[in-house]
Amino acid sequence: MRMGNVRNFGLAAMALAASSCASPASPREGDWPAFGRTHLGDRHSPLTQITPGNVAQLEAAWTYSTGEAAIETRSAFRLSTTPIVVDGAMYINTPLGKVAALNPVTGAQIWSRDFAVDRRGDFPDSASRGVSFWRDKAAAPGGPCATRIFVGVLDARLASLDARTGASCPDFGDGGVVNLKAGLRTGADPKWNAWEYELTSPPVIVGDLVIVGSTVGDNSRSRAASGEVRAFNARTGAQVWTFDPIPQDPNDPAYKTWSGPIAHQTGAANVWSVMAADPARDLVFLPTSSPSPDYWGGGRLGDNRYANSIVALRASTGKVVWHFQTVHHDIWDYDNAAPPALVTIERNGRKRDVVIQATKTGQLFVLDRENGEPVFAVEERPVPPSDVPGEVASPTQPFSAELPPLSPQALPKAWGATPEIEAACAAELAGLRNEGIFTPPSLKGSLILPGNVGGVNWGGVTYDPERGLAITAVNTIAAVVRLVPKDQRGRADFKAGGRLGDDGAIMLDAPYAMSRFFLATPKGEFCTPTPHGTLVAVDLRAGRIAWSVPLGMAPGQTAPDGKAEGMVNLGGAVTTASGVAFIGATPDGWFRAFDTASGRQLWQAKLPAGARATPMTYLGADGRQYVVIAAGGDGEGFGRSDQFVAFALPAPGRKVN
Predict the structure, then answer these.
(1) The pLDDT of residue 554
(2) Distance between CA 91 and CA 102 in Å, rounded?
(3) pTM of the predicted model as reported, rounded to 2 decimal places
(4) Can you tell me the distance from the alpha carbon of 132 to that of 34, in angstroms, rounded to the nearest whole number?
(5) Is there a contact between 472 and 536 (Cβ–Cβ < 8 Å)?
(6) What pLDDT, on the 0 to 100 scale, is given for residue 67?
(7) H-helix or E-strand containing 133?
(8) What would the DSSP string read from start to end of 577-600?
(9) Choosing a second label site near 193 at 20 to 30 A (CA), which of 22, 259, 292, 349?
(10) Which residues belong to the active site?
């Protein structure tokens, strides 16, 4: 591993206030009080009522409609919320700014608030992924705002609500709201896009601090909005600290890994995914993204440390404890999209507290939680150089050496479902740079595999400690990226030709624009071998892939999943102690259950739209275990809906046909 890939800035114990570092009480066995069940983010439930033997009896128990499906919007809004359940109530949010409390047994609404996000807003990522719960130990039980819901509203407002009533907590910020656009090093540019800076994921709470990241529009400009992570006092909303992944202090050891004319003016490298926290260690773990713009790094040469990294901060101060970079000098849009999972594994005969990070590159990194050192070996391997004038790609990249890749890393020859399609794909591939993973973008076009959706995207991993399995949804679709020179007026001639997944960006402050699309024939036939999406289980005791099965069916396909093509997926899985894994995530609109030990599909149910979300499970007051997923689609390939759907076994005493 290259020296400096892990940096340790002092791990000596600190004298901390009890409210800042004490471990929170473990959640009640039947609750799901945070996005990843706990702030550790393992997404594993101890519940055992639903088993591999009875999961096929699951039936819809209730649905809840947000009422937003029929609203016309400028952006394609994505209901990707994972609900939380705590103290007998379920809490959800929507991308249009609605927050609601529901009865977890019936789905009946208890209260709702509407923060009225502008429907005309041009939001780069118009998604909602959930809310956070906080109990004020200094408040009188049952008093106003003694328990609070914190929600990041899409238009960059952080709101604090009384969990019992939904009323704003007036002592927090300005009448219950903090404007997250205020105080940034570089803010959104109204001349470019006033909605460039957003909030799509729930904050993480450690002690009395609410810690929040941001979403910054991709590929917009070199000087994009800054991706600072900030901590606010949970009672008052006062800012306690800020951490900028683009180091601004020349004394910071990472500062010198950024060079070039605008290196330290670069934006993004933000945390748009979900953070994890270890309150007992006073640590918060940030999965950072790529610096701006995604596909051109000539203005920010060097490794760009803290970007594309897992950064462990002292939660009480925001100071760096250690960091591990998963991609050096990212020019592929290889964000750390997946939330970190903090789990305990058995390795070489002893238990280790680790951080599991799955990446868009299809790697699975397992790091010591205290110091960031790899628990499974990591190697720096040579990768292809850039041939674009002004660009300098990193000569090496980190690879997980002891764990196999989760997705293909190269496409050595053309592939097609028929000989005719294969010939058309060979023609598409012939003119591209194609040198395996980390082939840099080029002027003639480069094959990028994994593509910008991964590998592993924001669905991340769920970890089953009973079986030692890390389970994740994986994409295998290749993309083509071409850099397009600009003329003197800053214009570029895009010639993607309406390709499948066609996407382009002018990339302000850069000499090139970007054209990107899936590797496919002009007719839209994929040139990447099937399956195009998989559900993969990695055995962390043996260091091998335990099983891999196709996930999702292509339009019109009726074969069982064992023969399915597998589809691009966005969303994650959850596991239970009884050995069942649940996942939606596919555009075909099915919600599925798998046997955790073998990968065998056990059950599926049709949803009103594709579930571009991660499910959760909890024990209701009626004694039944429920599984809930947001089946909101995305207004595009996943369909469109506004429903949360709950499933449970039949009520006791009712016969099942």
Answers:
(1) 76
(2) 6
(3) 0.94
(4) 6
(5) yes
(6) 94
(7) strand 132-135
(8) TTSEEEE--STT-EEEEEETTT--
(9) 259
(10) 333
